[in-house]
Amino acid sequence: MHAYPPNLPLWDVIGQLADLFTSLDSERGMSPEQQWTLQVLKLSEEVGESAQAVVGAWGTNPRKGQSHTWRHVQEEVADTAITSLVTLHRMLGDEAPAFLAAVLAQKSAKFLPQSSCAEEA
Questions:
Q1: Position 8 confidence tier, pLDDT thresholds 50, 70, 90
Q2: Among residues 36, 23, 28, which one has the least CA distance to residue 83?
Q3: For the chain, which terminal residue's Cβ has fewer other Cβ atoms within 10 angstroms, N or C?
Q4: Is the dihedral of CA 109, 111, 112, 114 positive or negative?
């Protein structure tokens, strides 16, 4: 198993994962749109696993009780974020980081004062 090198930028690792999954799906004869569709479904699966972990952390499933910790929830949320970034990269390639930055700027402007957004840039 390969470890994430701490000195390798996040988007480089995301790109490597996206390229690997795209290559594997292409070998299976899938079109780009089919690959993107399945990747979004994978993202939905990860969100569901996050929700399941929350239910387990609260212990609200009578059959399972407290089956997860909040650390499990955090790991599932991280999986969801990684899968989301991989999905975006698979759809947009090297344009994904700039696209995400633009969408983040647009969305955050609705909630954050303009001065704090400008300071971050």
A1: confident
A2: 36
A3: N
A4: positive
| Dist. CA 84–CA 89, nearest whole Å | 9
Per-residue confidence band for 7, with pLDDT thresholds at 50, 70 and 90: confident
Q: DSSP assignment of the chain, as one string?
A: -----TTS-HHHHHHHHHHHHHHHHHHTT--HHHHHHHHHHHHHHHHHHHHHHHHHHHT--TTT-S---HHHHHHHHHHHHHHHHHHHHHHHGGGHHHHHHHHHHHHHTTTS-HHHHHHH-
Cα–Cα dist 99/14, whole Å: 14
Mean pLDDT, the chain, rounded, equals 92
Question: Residue 43 in contact with residue 54, Cβ under 8 Å?
Answer: no
**pTM for the model:** 0.85
Residues 49/79, Cβ–Cβ less than 8 Å: yes
